[in-house]
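User: I'm putting together a teaching handout on how sequence relates to shape, and I'd like one worked example. Could you take TIGR03643 family protein from Algoriphagus kandeliae, show the sequence you're using, and then write out its predicted structure as tokens right after it?

Assistant: Happy to. First the sequence, then the structure tokens directly below it.
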Amino acid sequence: MKKISMISEEDIDRVIEMAWEDRTPFEAIENQFGLNESEVISLMRKHMKASSFRMWRARVQGRATKHSKKSEGISSRFKCSRQRSISDNKISKR
């Protein structure tokens, strides 16, 4: 809890925003703010409404994308199986 009390309100808002994002792993939050997963959970519990926290925990629980080691097989963020390749500044026709 000591680390959480030393973070500015602006940084707390950013941690909450990053934690809500599906593709931001806890490791990224730890690298940027020095908070591990349990500290992020404590921060979320302290600074969110109880119902919002429960909804977030249900979404995050077991989600592979929130853990770098679990998400190694998942393709990068902006790629889709239906995305067409772009070459010579022209979008490929279907």
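A couple of points you could highlight for students: The chain has one domain: 2-71. The radius of gyration is 17 Å.
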